[in-house]
Design brief:
The complex is a heterodimer of chains A (121) and B (736). In chain A, 64% of the residues lie in helices and 10% in strands. With 121 residues, chain A is mainly alpha-helical. Chain A has helices at 2-30, 36-45, 52-64, 88-112, and strands at 68-73, 81-86. The N and C termini of chain B lie far apart (104 Å). In chain B, the strands form 6 sheets. In chain B, strands 11-12-5-15-18-19 form a 6-stranded mixed β-sheet, with no helix packed on it. Chain B has a 4-stranded mixed β-sheet with strand order 4-9-14-8. A 3-stranded antiparallel β-sheet of chain B has the order 6-7-13, with no helix packed on it. Chain B has 22 helices and 19 strands. Classes of the chains: A mainly alpha (121), B alpha+beta (736).
Chain lengths: 121, 736
Amino acid sequence: MFQLTAMDIQNTQSQMRKGVLEFCILSIINRGEVYPSDIIDQMKAANLHILEGTLYPLLTRLKNAGLLNYRWVESVSGPPRKYFVMTDAGKEAFSVLLQTWNDMANAVSLLTQPQTPNTEA
Amino acid sequence: MKKVININFQGRILPIEEESYETLKQYIESLRQYFDAEEGRDEIINDIECRIAELCDDRLKKGAVCITEDDMRLIIESIGRPADFEAQDGFEATTSASASNGNQQQFSANDENPKRLYRDEQNKVIGGVCAGIANYLKLDPLLVRVLWILLFGISFFAYVLLWIAVPNTSAHQIGGARKRLFRDIDAKVIGGVCAGLSKYFEIRVRYIRLLFLVPSILLVLNWNHFHLFQFWEFDDFPNFIELTFSPSAVFVYIVLWLVLPEAKTTADKLEMRGEKVDINSIKNTIQTDMEGFGKRAQSWGSNMYNKTKSDDSQTATTASNTAPEPAQRGGCLHFAGRTMTILFKAFVYFVLGIITISILAALFGVGIATTGLLPLRRFILEDGAHNWYAYAIIVFFIWVPVIGIVTAIIRKIAGIKKANVWVRGGFWSLWALSWVFIPLFFATLTKSFSKQNEPQEEVYKLANAKVNYLEVSAQQKLKYYNHTWLKLEPFNFFDSDTVYVRNLRVRIVKAASDSFEVKYVRISNGKTVAEAERLASKINFDLNQQDSSLFLDKGIAINKTDKFRNQHVIMTLAVPVGKRFKITNKAWEQVRVSVDKRGLRSQTGPNIDFPFDGDNSDWYNDAEAFDYDYDVEYIMTPTGLERVKGQPSDDNNEDPEQLKSRLEELKRESEKIENDLKKTWEQKQKEADEIKKQLDKKGDTIKRNSTKNEVAVSDTVKAIAFGFDAIKLLISRFQS
């Protein structure tokens, strides 16, 4: 029984992160033009771990969906590198997602707080 | 010491150890596999490659001389392997959605619920049913399998049901652990169908080929309906077996050829074998690809031999058909498909099972038959060396291969894959040893038969030689005939000390006087002439006349001390002109095994063998003797034997007049045909000449040709005319 519950918890955690990860990446790119490995670093700084192997497909998918675009930037050494930027559609989608997130965060923080009997009073 | 190579990777020149280069290649291949269903697969791979190149470059800038195995491992870990992507929160490619479910199922099947019946795919021989039952009952799978084989027939259908109904324990791994049927173009002979089937069923390709080849050979031999089940007299057995043993197998082959896709890419090849497509298996495949013939044979068994050229460029073009079945297509359709596959598989295994059992039965039959000959040994062989040679041949030549093959089949069933070299070598060398004994045996045997006695004609005085009709038949000394399935001609056992040899011949000649005469000679072989004489004189040949019947002994008695040295009797019956006789063939009830259009079958009925051995062709250079058939009444005439009218006759003696007229008719027809041919020939020739003249007016050469043609035409006409003359001459001769 215990193991099954642990599995369920894992599954829920994974679902939560899955929902939020895309939004996090969009937030990072929204701050400005960025190189994928910088995204990893910034995520790591925020204590969110992601493998590059999962990041690249995600970026490609978002790009194909029209939310992102990329630009080749000459590098000091070696060939040019791909930097990702938001498109207008991306910005729009981001604002919708941000709104949703704020609502969600509110709702969750409200619900996770210990219940106080008379909030209106 | 490691070899370092320089690669141009995404615009960067990287010195890299050869081994880590291999690792890199395998890693990228695994990614390609993983993102196969992804729309932007190539772009993703490209991005990742760029990143890897960048990371490598970083390492070199930090002072590394080259990219080592460790560096590569770290880089790959930071990017993540396909297996890690799944563990990573979320973001799997769509391909792995079903895979993770499969994984969970596997865990619960193996660890959590041991008391559920599963088919054990890991330890399977056919479908894993026996292994699953063994698991469930906590028995040794071998035990269950042996029981299953003992109950082959009933258990077969139960097996198929369980195969379909019971879920398996195998997991659907990344990219499809599910096997798919491909045509294996690397190991192909015609279209690769057999090779592909062999991969799918994990049966050696030669057996599948045999399954397809046998019908084709049978087709040639016109044995197109070989009833396998005639052996057991299952007359009403479903005819689907016939499908396998008839020309339709060729049809099946062609259909499969058209329907099955080729296994082009590495991924296809992996799916064909049903390997999990993950880094390790890809590593294996690529390694084996690189390492050529010998090592591949080790890692894949004898299956995949000629894949040396499949290189990266080929693997890069992974076909889209490797995409695993979308989840929504599952359910009912999937189940139906699975059932179909299993039924097909079951059918194939069933046929193979039948063949195996037949082979076993046949082998035992041969062994028993030769051992059955042993009691006769004492009637033929002398004591000492001769005897030992016979024993050696029976043991080494017959039983050693029988036991060897049976052992091999049992080992195969028991799932022992590793061949024991010593056992196999032992069987082979013992068998080879038998080849030493065979010539020795036959040499000594021939020697014992080398001399013959001087035949002396003896006269039997008939009690009533003046009869008009004499019927010759054999007296049956044996009261019962052994009704055994195995009949060892020409010997019949009488008791343990005596055998009867049906070694009598009857010769018919014309008598000089007006009475029947009977003479006979007793002949025997032996090591020396003296011995042959002695044996011949011991032949006890009884004759007995009762009115118009003449009874002969049915055989010559041979005992153990005297041995069989081809003792035989030739009886000459002199028939006076104008008198009738008949050689009867009293039927013996016996089992005959025959092969006819309906297959191999046994039937009980009268035998057609005359109790006197030998056929009439013995007399072909005997000017005095006449040909005759058994059970036919003949009359002796001044010119020879003639059938008494009303008797069945073999040759259709038609009226000579009728024959003549028919011949003439044929001649006329042939004349007509030749005339027509001549006319068309001339006409064509003329046409050809005209066309040539029209086409080429310069042509001296053509003119020459045409004159040649004219000459040719006149020659042909002459030839045909000559032919007519010849035919006329023939007809006139025939008439005269």
